[in-house]
Design goal:
The chain starts with a strand and ends in a 14-residue tail after the last helix. By secondary structure, it is α/β, with parallel strands linked by helices. It has two domains: about 230 residues, FAD/NAD(P)-binding domain, CATH 3.50.50.60; about 130 residues, FAD/NAD(P)-binding domain, CATH 3.50.50. Bound molecules: flavin-adenine dinucleotide.
Length: about 425
């Protein structure tokens, strides 16, 4: 058992908390930075582990890395990563602003390795959070149980665990082996028999669903792949330089200051710029392949638009989906071996954050402009939420677009909230 006592414990070593670690190293006193710890449940850092497909590209410019929008001179920039790993010329020659997803993932690992003050610990999942109270009953810190059996205490928590996968209730009664959510696709698909004539149903009409369809189709030459969607057909992301300005960090102030109804309206209008579309390259690739299949009469790809899945059940090892047509109300059955869910993420706060709110006796956390959860007066411990504040901070909150600037705002707030007394006397974090 180890009992590290830190100023700040950041849960999850994804882009959000790595950007925070960089901002702490660059903005905070080194005494403070040495008492900051990032924990990651996995043994390594991988960006979008479940969808790390070799050909998939990031959808935002490489200039929106973990730091450049806050500090363009930082040594933690994506450009410096390319330079240090001797790949700058190759990247420039590719003539694209959009790195491969794999390359972003490698960049995140490089950033974590390049930190010199903030510590990153792997293989430590946050299992449970409890509070630390002063003799007067004030909540002054957090006690966090980790999966390796250790407990860490911290004055401040930063939750950056991403969002929980959304698995619609209708699929929850199916055998776990027959259902693959996009967040686990890359490693679960490897367990399927690639030579078998499997019948695969992909549910959803956005980028993740289209990526799963295309990857499965290519990897499994005997598979029949159907894509089931509520919409009338796959559509492109509806984006432009104009709407992209709403992803600027400077838009966060406007959004945060607006009335709730106005924020809802903007989020609704912005949906197709991020969630409900497919990149033109992938959409065109899939369409061309379907065209070729019709030409050669060897059809393995199929689109099933304008339907609701109204029932899902197992019959032996077979999944039976009931599809209800929007136009006719008619029900049909689709039998398949595997269902792949491109159904996105829960809109509610992640289970871990909800558990912390319950602990404090708050029904639902609201966050300040600086991402600090608003607490009752009896709580002096800090808790910051990253990546789950779309409703209050705008559509860019779950994306890479704002996280360099957001990290700086959190560090400013943390330092301003530091008590005038000495920093916590800390037991060094063991290696
Ligand atoms: C397929 C896909 C593609 C995307 N592509 C883009 C893109 O091109 N551009 C863009 O801007 N955004 C993209 N996004 C949005 C994405 O959410 C952000 O890019 C970014 O990953 C958010 O970072 P994060 O650190 O907040 O969360 P995450 O990236 O989800 O990282 C969370 C980390 O926390 C760890 N963790 C979770 N629970 C615990 C626990 N209890 N204890 C310890 N560790 C834990 C996880 O293992 C993970 O490492 C994409 C999302 C998906 C799903």
């Amino acid at each position: 058992m180890e009992y590290p006592e830190v100023e700040l414990l950041a849960i999850g070593a994804g882009p959000s908390n790595l950007a925070l670690a960089v901002a702490i190293e660059e903005m905070a006193p080194s005494d403070f930075a040495r008492k900051c710890l990032v924990i990651e449940q996995h043994e390594d850092i991988v960006w979008q582990r479940g969808m790390l497909l070799p050909w998939a590209q990031s959808q935002v410019s490489f200039l929106k890395d973990l730091v450049t929008m806050r500090n363009p001179r930082s040594r933690f920039s994506f450009i410096n990563y390319l330079y240090e790993t001797d790949r700058l010329h190759d990247f420039i020659n590719m003539s694209s602003l959009l790195p491969f997803r794999l390359e972003i993932s490698n960049y995140l690992q490089w950033v974590a390795r390049s930190l010199s003050l903030v510590q990153v610990r792997y293989g430590r999942r946050c299992m449970r959070v409890d509070v630390v109270r002063s003799a007067a009953g004030e909540i002054t810190g957090w006690m966090v149980e980790l999966s390796d059996g250790s407990v860490a205490t911290a004055r401040n928590l930063v939750v950056g665990v991403g969002r929980d996968p959304h698995i619609p209730e209708i699929f929850q009664g199916l055998d776990k082996t027959a259902v693959i959510h996009s967040t686990e696709y890359a490693y679960r698909v490897g367990m399927l028999d690639h030579a078998a004539p499997l019948r695969v149903a992909v549910v959803g009409a956005a980028q993740s669903a289209a990526e799963m369809l295309w990857e499965t189709y290519q990897r499994m030459p005997a598979a029949q792949c159907a894509m089931i969607m509520r919409t009338v057909g796959l559509g492109y992301y509806q984006t432009s330089q104009f709407t992209n300005e709403l992803y600027f960090p400077s838009f966060t102030d406007t959004f945060y200051g607006a009335p709730a109804e106005a924020r809802q309206r903007v989020l609704q209008e912005m949906r197709r710029t991020n969630y409900a579309g497919v990149t033109p390259e992938l959409l065109n690739t899939i369409y061309r392949q379907m065209y070729l299949e019709r030409l050669t009469g060897q059809q393995r790809l199929r689109m099933i638009p304008s339907v609701d899945i109204t029932e899902a059940r197992m019959e032996g090892e077979e999944v039976v989906l009931t599809l209800t047509q929007h136009m006719t109300g008619q029900h049909t059955e689709l039998r398949c071996d595997v269902v792949m869910l491109g159904t996105g993420f829960e809109r509610t706060l992640p289970a871990l954050t909800r558990a912390i709110a319950d602990l404090i006796g708050v029904e639902r956390f609201m966050v300040s402009r600086a991402y600090r959860a608003m607490m009752p007066a009896t709580v002096s411990a800090g808790c910051y939420l990253q990546g789950t504040n779309e409703e209050s901070h705008g559509i860019a909150d779950s994306l890479i677009s704002v996280l360099a600037v957001r990290a700086g705002e959190i560090v400013d707030d943390l330092l301003a909230a530091q008590p005038s007394t000495e920093l916590l006397t800390s037991i060094p974090v063991p290696a």
